[in-house]
Specification:
heterodimer; A: 198 residues; alpha/beta; Rossmann fold; B: 255 residues; mainly alpha; MetI-like fold; 10 helices; 0% strand; globular
Chain lengths: 198, 255
C-alpha cells in the first residue's frame, strides 16, 4: 500500500501552514519540520480528523495513531488500553505484556489505572496501542516525548520491528530519535512545490 | 473514613439536642393536637409497625414512587442520548424540561388527576419530577466526555460497546449518580404530596390525609418519619448500587 499526499494545502484563517504539499511513502518514514510548521495538523488531516483546504490523500486505509497527547482511558490499565483497540483482546494479553516488558514496564505498572502512571509510562502505553492496533497506516506524533534515552532506543527498536513494510509516518524534530529509528526522513519544509494537475 | 467515624458522636449529640428541644416544646404547648412529643410519635410508630396495613401502605407508595423514578431514569437517559445525537431533539426538549422543572407540583397533580386514576398518580408525578433532573445530569455527563478520547475511538474504530464502556459510561455515571441523589428525594416528596391530593386508597399519602382530618398529630408525625426513613433508605440503597457500577466501570478512582 502506498500513501499518497498530493497538493495538500491548509491554512487557519490568514495563517498558511503548508501549500501544495506532495509526497508518497510505502513504508515507515520520519516527517521532519521545524516546530510550528504544521506536522500535527498534517497528521490530523491524514487521520481524517481535520479537512484540508485543498488537495487529495490516497492509500491511508485503516489508521492507528500516537497522538500529541497520550489519550489513554484513565480508568483502564496500560495493558487494557492496548487491548481496548484489539478485536481478539483476551488472546493477546500475554503478548502485549511481553512488549511492555521490552519497554521496561512490568509488575504494578501494568495493573495501575493509566491516570496513576508517569508521563513516560503513559507514552509507552500510547505507543504500544498504535503498534498493536490493526492498521494500514500508522501516524505517530512525537511518540518518544517523555522517554529517557534508553527507553527511546528500546521503543525505536520495537517500532523498527513492527512497522516495517507498511506506511508509517512519525513526526518529530528530535534528531536523536531520527537517528535511532534509521527511517528515511521527509523534510517537509524543503519539499519542492509542485503545480497542481490541470 | 476516620473523619466519618469521628463525626458520629457529633451527629448523635445534634440529634439528641433537637429531640430534647422538641420534647420540651411539646410539654410547653401541652396539647397533643398541636404538637406531639417525640415519645408520643415514637409510640404511635411502634403501634403502627406490626400492622399489615402499615406495610401494605409502605409497599403501595414505595412501589409506585420508585416505578415513576425508574421510568423517569430510563426515559431521561434515552432523551439525553437523543439530544446528543440530534440538535433538533435538543432544541425541542430544552423548553419542555425548563417548563417541567418550573411548574409547581400541585399544578401537575391537579392536571394529572384529569388524565390518570388516583392510584397511578404518584407514578406519573415521580416520573415528571425525575425526568428533568436526570436529563440534565446525563447531559452534563455527556457534555463532559473527553473529546480527545472520542477522537481516539474514531481513529482506532472502536466498536460502539467498547466506546460506551471505556469512554461514555465513566463520564456519565458519576453525574447520573448525583442526579439520582437529587431526583430520588424529589420523587418521594412530590409522590407523597400527589397521594395527599389524589387520595388513593392504601397509600401513605392517604394515611397522612386521614391523620389530618382526624387531628391525629401522632400519626402525622409517625408517617412523616416513615417517609423520611424510606426516602433515605432507598437513596442509600440505590446510590450504593450505582457506586458499585461506577467503581466497576471507572476503576478504583471515581472521576
Amino acid at each position: 500500500m502506498i500513501l499518497q499526499v498530493e497538493h495538500l494545502t491548509k491554512a487557519f484563517g490568514d495563517h498558511l501552514l503548508f501549500r501544495d504539499l506532495t509526497f508518497s511513502v510505502s513504508g515507515p518514514a520520519v516527517l521532519w519540520a521545524p516546530s510550528g510548521w504544521g506536522k500535527t495538523t498534517l497528521l490530523r488531516i491524514l487521520l481524517g480528523l481535520e479537512q484540508p483546504d485543498s488537495g487529495t490523500i490516497a492509500g491511508v486505509g485503516r489508521t492507528a495513531a500516537v497522538f500529541q497527547e497520550d489519550r489513554l482511558c484513565p480508568q483502564l490499565s496500560a495493558v487494557e488500553n492496548v487491548l481496548l483497540v484489539l478485536p481478539d483482546d483476551k488472546a493477546r494479553r500475554q503478548a502485549v505484556e511481553a512488549d511492555f516488558a521490552l519497554l521496561g514496564m512490568s509488575g504494578e505498572a501494568l495493573i495501575l489505572p493509566a491516570a496513576r502512571l508517569s508521563g513516560g509510562q503513559k507514552r509507552r502505553a500510547a505507543l504500544l496501542r498504535a503498534v498493536w492496533a490493526k492498521a494500514d497506516t500508522r501516524l505517530l506524533d512525537e511518540p518518544f516525548t517523555g522517554l529517557d534515552p534508553v527507553s527511546m532506543e528500546q521503543a525505536a527498536a520495537l517500532l523498527n520491528r513492527r512497522c516495517a513494510g507498511a506506511p508509517a509516518l512519525l513526526a518529530t524534530h528530535d534528531r536523536a530519535a531520527i537517528q535511532a529509528l534509521g527511517w528515511p526522513v521527509i523534510h517537509l519544509d524543503q519539499l519542492p512545490k509542485q503545480d497542481p494537475a490541470p | 473514613m476516620e473523619s466519618k467515624k469521628k463525626s458520629w458522636p457529633g451527629r448523635l449529640a445534634a440529634a439528641a439536642f433537637w429531640l430534647a428541644l422538641w420534647q420540651w416544646a411539646a410539654m410547653a404547648v401541652g396539647q397533643e393536637v398541636f404538637l406531639v412529643s417525640p415519645v408520643q410519635a415514637a409510640g404511635t410508630l411502634i403501634r403502627l409497625l406490626p400492622t399489615g396495613e402499615f406495610w401494605a401502605r409502605v409497599a403501595f407508595s414505595s412501589g409506585r414512587i420508585l416505578l415513576g423514578f425508574g421510568l423517569g431514569a430510563v426515559c431521561s437517559v434515552a432523551l439525553a442520548v437523543g439530544a446528543r445525537l440530534s440538535r433538533t431533539v435538543e432544541l425541542l426538549l430544552d423548553p419542555v424540561m425548563q417548563l417541567v422543572k418550573a411548574t409547581p407540583v400541585a399544578s401537575f397533580v391537579i392536571l394529572a388527576l384529569v388524565w390518570v386514576r388516583g392510584r397511578e398518580l404518584s407514578i406519573l408525578i415521580s416520573f415528571l419530577m425525575a425526568v428533568p433532573v436526570l436529563y440534565s445530569a446525563v447531559r452534563t455527563g455527556i457534555q463532559g466526555t473527553d473529546v480527545q478520547l472520542l477522537e481516539m475511538a474514531r481513529v482506532f474504530r472502536l466498536p460502539a460497546g467498547r466506546r460506551l464502556r471505556a469512554i461514555w459510561l465513566p463520564a456519565v455515571l458519576p453525574a447520573f449518580r448525583e442526579g439520582c441523589r437529587t431526583a430520588l428525594g424529589l420523587c418521594w416528596k412530590s409522590g407523597v404530596a400527589a397521594e395527599v391530593i389524589g387520595l388513593p386508597d392504601g397509600s401513605i399519602g392517604d394515611a397522612l390525609y386521614r391523620a389530618k382530618i382526624t387531628l391525629s398529630t401522632g400519626d402525622l408525625f409517625a408517617w412523616t418519619f416513615v417517609i423520611i426513613c424510606l426516602s433515605a433508605l432507598f437513596e442509600k440503597l440505590f446510590l450504593a448500587l450505582l457506586g458499585l457500577a461506577v467503581r466497576h466501570v471507572c476503576g478504583e478512582e471515581e472521576p
